[in-house]
Amino acid sequence: MKCPECGKDMQAGFLQTQKLVAFNKTRHKISLNPEDDKDVMIARKAFTGTDFQGFICKECGLVVFDYKNGMSRF
Ligand SMILES: [Zn+2]
Fold first, then answer.
1. pLDDT per residue over 19-73, tens digit each?
2. Predicted pLDDT of residue 18
3. CA of 10 to the centre of ligand 1 (A)
4. 45-71 as b/e, with b when 16 or more CB fall inside 10 Å?
5. What are phi and psi of 35, to 5 degrees?
6. Which of 13, 38, 8, 1 is nearest to 23 (CA)?
7. How confident is the model at residue 12 (pLDDT cuts 50, 70, 90)?
8. CA distance 25 to 19
């Protein structure tokens, strides 16, 4: 995959998290749980972790991954 920012080849791999990951419209101060219908809880497994197949650009720092197809690590 080519980086949408700089056009260079991106490196394939896995974005791995051990905790919750949320993409929220505004920065929540305490809980990451959705407060707005635009908020997305990306990784929900606080104890087992979640892995996402994706691509990274080490030039720009951009990471692209499919948040709907997360895999449980255990
Ligand atoms: Zn790039």
1. 999 999 999 999 999 999 999 999 999 889 999 999 999 999 999 999 999 999 8
2. 93
3. 7
4. beeebbbbebbbbeeeeeeebeeeebe
5. -120, -20
6. 38
7. very high
8. 19
**Where do we find the tokens 């449980």?**
72
CA torsion 20-22-27-33 (nearest 10°) is -70
- Model confidence, pTM: 0.86
Residues with CB under 5 A from ligand 1 (ion): 3, 5-6, 57, 59-60
Question: What is the 67 CA–ligand 1 centroid distance (Å)?
Answer: 20
Matching residue, tokens 């991954």? 65
Query: Ligand 1: distance of its center to the CA of 63 in Å?
Result: 9
